[in-house]
Amino acid sequence: MTQPPPPPGAGVLPKDAYTPWIKRVGAYIIDVIPIVILSGVGQGLMAATGENNCTSSSGDNSYGVYCTSQPSALGLILSFVFGIAALAFWVWNWGYRQGTTGSSIGKSVLKFKVISEKTGQPIGFGLSIVRQIAHFVDAIICYIGFLFPLWDAKRQTLADKIMTTVCVPL
């Protein structure tokens, strides 16, 4: 049985009251699958509709076929549309959904949520977006910030510490 989230203003709970690192990694993988698919489809369509131009040349010192490839206008438009769809999903999943319920799709599947340490409630749309951007701090120092939950008492990343959030089981 899991322990309830910490009450507002609570101190540090036992380490097992917070979500394990491996579950957080799993949730991230689940969350990025739609983004990778949307982006990949857009890039694939851009490549598939591209125009190839090949010329052969011969001269004193060279002989061969030289090819260049350019995306078509349709390919660029499709790539842009799918890129916007991926961004919209990112904002909806990590901004709106996680901000209002505490759980992105991946977090819901793995049964945990992000809450404010101070209130014990989801952090809201704006702060959820800022939290995702704060993960840049985790990445900029050779991704060490993402490993902090392995040894931190509250299993927080640096972004969690900046935003005063914790991940707790549902």
TrEMBL record:
One of its GO terms (cellular component) is plasma membrane. Its main location: membrane. Keywords: Cell membrane, Membrane, Transmembrane, Transmembrane helix. Residues 18-163 form the RDD domain. It is found in: Cell membrane. It is a multi-pass membrane protein. Pfam families: RDD. The chain crosses the membrane at residues 73-92, 133-151. Coiled coil: none annotated. This is Transporter.
